[in-house]
Structures are given as structure tokens and as C-alpha cells.
Design goal:
single chain, 383 residues, alpha/beta, Rossmann fold, 19 helices, disordered C terminus
Length: 383
Amino acid sequence: MLPKLLKNIALNSLLVIGSVLIGFILVELTFRPHNLKFENLILKEDDDLVNKFYDKLFKYDPTLGWLPLSNVSVSKWGSQVKTLDDGIRSNGAPTVLNDHAPILALGDSFTFGDQVSDDKTWPSYLEQLTHRKVYNAGVSSYGIDQVVLRLEKENLIKKYNPKIIILSIIYDDILRCMQTVRHGDSKPYFTLKNDELVLQKQPASETVRLDWFRNIFGYSYICHKLMSDRFPDYWFRGTSREFRTIPGDSLKITELLFDRFMRSTQSKDVIFLIQERARWGDLESLIDYIRKTYPKVHVVYLTPTLIHLENTNPQEYDSFFYGHMTAVGNKFVAEILAKYILTLHDYQNRRIIKRARRDSNLHQQLRRLLPYPLGYGRKVFSQ
């Protein structure tokens, strides 16, 4: 009697499983797009930051998470993107330069110049306007923590001996300090212990590793849609859609990182550039902290200018952005920085002004700098 009962249970179980599988296949065939190839949709739709967004341009780094490759030229954003030694981005065609007073530009993708060609980034325009060599050491998707760590690890100040250092940020760079994974790639991060920074290093993963469930059911269109909506953190782990954030005081960590950054600058002139389009409490608190703690740091706060422009000339404001800044937007940033830099170093600027007296083109170029009213520009420039 018992063997017969077990046999019936096994048979009924197989019938249920078979019915579920047949039903699942019918639903899959009904809703699956007819032109969709049979492949793992997790890997098809998403790869990690390095392989998806910056393939052949960036590399994995065990300390920093990722870095631009050195001396490569890649077709991207409709043009060629070229890097030099240490992953420094090229500024395009060379111009007449003053190598005795170079500028080092640090920051994220807004500094690196995502979505524009080499000669249309703000560091490139700044080089053209000031006639000083500008080293573009921006790295896309970096937080302030990675910017500071790279400055230290690669000893960029000693290598390039800049006269001026520009640290450019947006508000999200503060939040990125609390991320342990960004776009599927592990990154270093800091925690606080007794109000001191503690570095937490993580190895960078070079390939997306799927567990057995994602390896099998990633081929299903229905599973892919359901898991994407209900459990995206698990489903997209190791891809560009994975972000992991830990709790913590991002503002305090950023302030301490700025202290660490200032210790690395070796008494160079520092410009703190904020390219954010909207006002954020943490960002303005950071500006207040820098102004009080480091009064010699030159704060260039573009947000009031951008808000003013959006309210008075929205068409021109829209021309500044295409996700990142357009060539027009980057030139706007460079003009403001150039106007400011030309007031910083009397000796170097006297040489430029002296040349401008003999060069009418250079003279007109200097007179055209900052074609925006200085009335509200005072909110931008503060020492």
C-alpha cells in the first residue's frame, strides 16, 4: 500500500512540475520579443563600469577601483578620446604654453570631459585661454575619496609640479564617498573611527560572476523582467546597475578628505570648483567649512551663476548640458576660471599681458573673458 501511495505522490508531483514548466514556457514564448536572441539577458543588458562605459579606455585598479589607461586613443562620443602618461587626458591640439606655471585639474567625469572631444573639455579650453599647460587628471565616476587617493598614490603633484591645483566636484561626489560598489565595480571607501578616516580597501572584480540561479534563469525574458523590478540589487550584482551604499556621515568624511587633500598640495594655490546645477545643504555646508578652515583656498561656486542663467536665459542654460556639460558649457566654465586665474599670479600674468600688447588676437581674447555680468559674479568668486 505504501509503495503505491509514494508512486502516486511522485507521479502527481511530476505532473505538477511538468504543467508549471509547460505553462512557464508558453508565457515566455507569448511575451518574449520575437527578435530577442537566446542569451543571458543580465550580461547582454549590463556590464560593469569599465567594460560598458569605458571599454578600452579605463582599466581596473586594485587600490582605486578604476583608472584611465595611459597612451591610448579610443573612438568615443563621436570623436577620438586620447590619453597621455598616467592616464592624463589629452587637451587636443597644442597651443602656446607657459610650462613654468602649469595647472593640475582634478575631479570626476565633468573634469575628464565625458561626451565631448579632447579639445572641448574645460581643462582644454582653460589651457587655450590662459596659455598655461593644464593637466586633466579627472576620472569619470570618481568620488572625492578616489580623487584624493589617486593624488597620493600616483604622486601627481611631484610629477607635474603644478602652480595651481583645481579640485572640481558636483554634489554626487560627496555621496559617492559612502558607496562601496559603483556601476558594478568595487571601490575603496572610508569609515570614521574617533573622528579619523579609516580606509577600507576592496579588490576590484574584473568579470561579472553569476550564481547558478542567475546563470540559468537569466535566459528567461519573464524572469529577467520580474527580478529587475522586484530584486534589482541581487539580479544586477556585478553589472553597471549595481550600487552599494553604506550608512555614514558623508559630509564629515568629505571634510576630512579635504583636510587630507590640502596636506598633499604642498602650499600650492588651490581652486575649489563646484559645478553643481542646484543648491544642496551638504554642499553649501562643505563650502562654509572650506572658507572658514582654509581662507586662502579660492572657492569658485558656479551654482548661483547657473541658477541665475536658468531663470534669465533658459535657452542658453539648456545649451550647457547634455547629461554632462557640452562644449559650450565647458567653455563657459573655462572662461570663469581663466578670468579668476589671471588675477592670481602677478608675475606670470604680467608676461601674458605684455605679450598681449604685441598680439592683438591675444589682447581681444583676454578682453572677452567672462562675458557675464560681474554683479552676481561676486557670489561666484570668493577668497
